[in-house]
Amino acid sequence: MEDFWVFGYGSLMWRPGFAHVEQRRARLHGYRRALCIHSWVHRGTQARPGLVLGLDRGGSCIGLAFHVAPPDRDAVLAYLRERELVTNVYLERRVAITIEGGRRVDAVTYVADTHHEQYAGALHADQAARQVRGAVGQAGPNEEYVFNTIAHLQELAIRDHWLEAVGALLKDEASADPR
């Protein structure tokens, strides 16, 4: 049976929620981490949508690859589908990734469906910060999600300049707010 890997670029990196035998730093070419999904439940509402992460076309993304033991493959896929495909804004894809040491493997990941109504498109950092600012959903403030993501990426020594720029704009605005 072939190796089964999962590529995580957001919360899957620090909260995978499934059994795995190994995790390695990895790079995916052709997609980038982006706040490109309108959040209508967890970090916003339909009336005031927030933004959450997706893999959007272009660039590359450093994340973590999780190697799953063959007996766990079906259970892990079922778990991921339940977690990631709630509103079908993500598409399950098998992609080639390069793991630490230069080895290329195929992995399952979830990319933004650019035809879905929740797809926000490619945003400049200031546009993303404006949409994130003040959005609140069932899981809490959207700003908290962005700051938490940046903090976890920093713990993993993963730089994401665009997301860090969004965070800096949010912090600048928060420090300038006279409330």
Task: Describe the secondary-structure layout.
Elements: E1 4-8, H1 11-14, E2 22-39, E3 50-68, H2 73-84, E4 90-99, E5 104-112, H3 125-132, E6 136-137, E7 140-141, H4 142-155, H5 161-176
Helix pairs in contact: 3-5, 4-5
Detailed description of the structure:
- The structure is a single chain.
- By secondary structure, the protein is of the alpha+beta class.
- Helices cover 30% and strands 36% of the residues.
- The chain has helices at residues 11-14, 73-84, 125-132, 142-155, 161-176, and strands at 4-8, 22-39, 50-68, 90-99, 104-112, 136-137, 140-141.
- A five-stranded antiparallel beta sheet has the order 1-3-2-4-5. Strands 6-7 form a two-stranded antiparallel sheet.
- Strand 4 (90-99) and strand 5 (104-112) form a beta hairpin.
- Helix 3 (125-132) crosses helix 5 (161-176) and helix 4 crosses helix 5.
What's a concise summary of this model?
The protein is α+β, with helices and mostly antiparallel strands and 179 residues long. The chain contains 5 helices and 7 strands, in the order βαββαββαββαα.
